[in-house]
Amino acid sequence: MENEKKLPTAEATEAQALPDEEMDKVTGGLKEYSVLLRKEVTWGGIRHVYAVYEWKGTDDNKKYLCPTCHRPVHTGSWGRYYCDPCDESWYFEGSLEMNPNGGWVYVREHTSVPGDPGLVR
To answer: What's phi and psi for 61, nearest 5 deg?
Structure first.
């Protein structure tokens, strides 16, 4: 009897809303996107300064642009992003361009630091 599996109760299987503090820990898809603003010459090398944007939109079909034709791409099967005019698709969001009109909000600047791959010597 000790080896019998116990099935989850109805309470344990119900979906529950997460509090705001827990939502910050949720992962899946890119939540931030960085755009290179400028390069600064320093005594330690060249420092890259990026603008960091956070996704606040609700429609993932407005999130990215095609890197070829610069039109919005849409989500599709198998977690891919598709560009119908170019007949291309991508698994990785990092291959796509941020759509500045889609729901990205500027949050801060990020500067590369010594030892960071963003610092070129």
So the answer is: -75, -5
Bridge partners of residue 111, in order along the sequence: 49
Query: 108 versus 22: which is more confidently predicted?
Result: 108
> Rounded distance, CA 84 to CA 68, Å?
12
DSSP 66-110: -TTT-PBPEE-GGG-EEETTTTEEES-GGGSEE-TTTTEEEEEEE
Nearest to 101 by CA among 50, 38, 53: 53
Residue 27 confidence (pLDDT) above 90: no
Q: How far apart are CA 59 and CA 53, in angstroms?
A: 16
